[in-house]
Amino acid sequence: MTSTMAPRLALSIVSHGQGHLIRPLLDDLIAIREQIAEVLVTLNIPEDEAFLEGFRDRLPIRVRRNDRRQGFGMNHNAAFSESTSPFFVVVNPDIRLPNFAMDELLSNAANPCVGVAAPIVHASNGQLQDSARRFPTLSRLIRRKMGGRISPDYAIGQQPLDVDWVAGMFMVFRRDVYSSIGGFDDRYFMYFEDVDLCYRLHSTGLRVRLVPQARVVHDAQRASRRKLQHFLWHVSSACRYLRTVGRLPRGSLSGNS
User: Fold this and answer.
1) Which helix (H) or strand (E) holds 36?
2) Residue 199, in any domain of the structure
3) Integer-rounded Cα radius of gyration of the chain
4) Which of 69, 98, 118, 190 has most Cβ atoms within 10 angstroms of its Cβ?
5) How far apart are CA 155 and CA 162, in angstroms?
6) Whole domain around residue 69: which residue ranges?
7) DSSP single-letter state for residue 51
8) Which 8-state DSSP code applies to residue 215?
9) Chunked in runs of 10, what are the mean pLDDT values of the chain (257 residues)?
10) Residue 251 and residue 174: Cα distance in Å, rounded?
């Protein structure tokens, strides 16, 4: 659905040499370009910018070029500081937006009780991914790493659902919310920064909302399982989260509304 409202979205996309993935994402964004005020593309490592050809005159793209590699949260925080739009959207490069219901996400994100809104996520094979979860515990993390079977934390229906946390592959924030909590904690280089941010939103009394009416497709790379460095980042971030934040009490802050 295309909105007739003035452009009000700033989208932040970080590339790690992933221009080949971003190009089809930009193509999908054309369908909602009337809503987009800014597309901030951060090149975290040097790469050929040819993937932007054909899009600069169709989307309001601004390129940010890092002198050195930065972490997930630091990159998006820097993009936010250069944006001015009332809504800030964090988007992974490998996201696709077929028939995307952006208005549904915006109406939920605009709710003053909501801190962040996110769509449901399907893999490229159509399988629903567990992008909304309860806050992690050490035992759950160990079971996941050992390949143990874990059932989805939430039953996804047709109505918006308030959850503990949503994965950072696609997140929609009101500008005032993102600013008030200081964005992502950039001490997390990669992984768990989305868990930490959602925890802090809950701690301020705001809700984390999953919106089933909005759907994205995630061509997951699963780098954390393939590369030693990503595995080490994952373990380090998990330890930081469990040490400094921990898990909220059972039955805690999430609930349906």
Assistant:
1) strand 36-43
2) yes
3) 17
4) 118
5) 11
6) 9-244
7) G
8) E
9) 71 96 97 97 97 97 96 97 98 95 96 98 92 80 61 87 97 99 91 92 97 92 59 72 60 43
10) 27
> Does any domain span residue 14?
yes
What is the predicted pLDDT for the residue at 251? 38
Domain count of the chain? Answer: 1
Question: What tokens appear for 118 in the block?
Answer: 């996110």
Give CA–CA dist 25/31, Å, rounded.
11
Give the CA diameter of the chain. Answer: 51
CA atoms of 76 and 154, how far apart (whole Å): 28
Helices then strands, counting H and E runs in the chain, come out as 8, 11
Residues 35 and 29 sit within 8 Å (Cβ to Cβ) = no
Please state the separation of Cα 76 from the chain's center in Å.
10
User: Does 1 map to a domain?
Assistant: no
Geometric angle at alpha carbon 165, from 164 and 168, rounded to 5°: 175
Residue 3, domain member (yes or no): no
Q: How many CB atoms lie within 10 A of CB 77?
A: 19
pTM equals 0.86
Residue type, position 236, single letter: S
Residue 73 parent element (H or E): helix 72-81
Show the beta-strand stretches assigned E in 136-242. Answer: 161-163, 165-166, 170-174, 207-218
